[in-house]
């Protein structure tokens, strides 16, 4: 179901929710809100999936039996905080970016952001803008772009190869931002669009963070080696004390905590064993959607593949019955 013809390029929150409501009504979908899945187990003898879900409000356990099971709980189910020696005894405030609200409460404090993706860069900018003495840990190479450059790339890639477009985007980024390696930000070898396609990692859309880094207002550090009290030691042996650490270190899948018998499809991290586009199907009617790190476009591809496969299975079963 498409968006209305007059919908803007970037859908506002309220309009997106209205679209979801319309989608549910049109296809007669009956979501179970405020419900958590406890376990999903395949019954070999019954040849079906048995699932237990819990109503959060009433604590009532509901049992489901299904021929097919689609794991669509997302690759970002739970906050991911890396294991760092001494973190447990950090004397300041340590939070995940999902809990970050505003830099206003950290004005005048020494703040460290771990992670240089879009969330990390935006949080670092917000902290610095509210008067925090801000540092950021850049753990891996990253492409920094403007939204205009990315928008141009998304248009051009429909007409020419990814490699050609990536080369142009990197050149444009160099013109806008210059050589960021002198400031501790190194570009990946793969171009921004190819990297997104292969790993799911998006380029960083700069909101002003790079300018503050160049001015020295935001300091860049290497990865953390250990923490002692409120002192953080980095891999280059430099040390600084901090009042707050914000971990913008992403999320992780939690599918393996409730899905049993899922080894035909998922690895130990709760992500597909097979590479895109052959990742979406396991054994015994098991499928996954949205776990391939391909964004909304990847989810749409998964959904179509799964729906067509289930339809084909039903048609085959009906033919055999006749």
UniProtKB/TrEMBL annotation:
Cited InterPro entries: Auxin_biosynth/cation_transpt, FAD/NAD-bd_sf, Flavin_mOase, Flavin_mOase-like
EC number: 1.-.-.-
Gene Ontology molecular function: indole-3-pyruvate monooxygenase activity
Coiled coil: none
Catalytic activity of the protein: indole-3-pyruvate + NADPH + O2 + H(+) = (indol-3-yl)acetate + CO2 + NADP(+) + H2O
Keyword hit for Oxidoreductase: yes
Entry superkingdom: Eukaryota
Family: Belongs to the FMO family.
Protein name: Flavin-containing monooxygenase
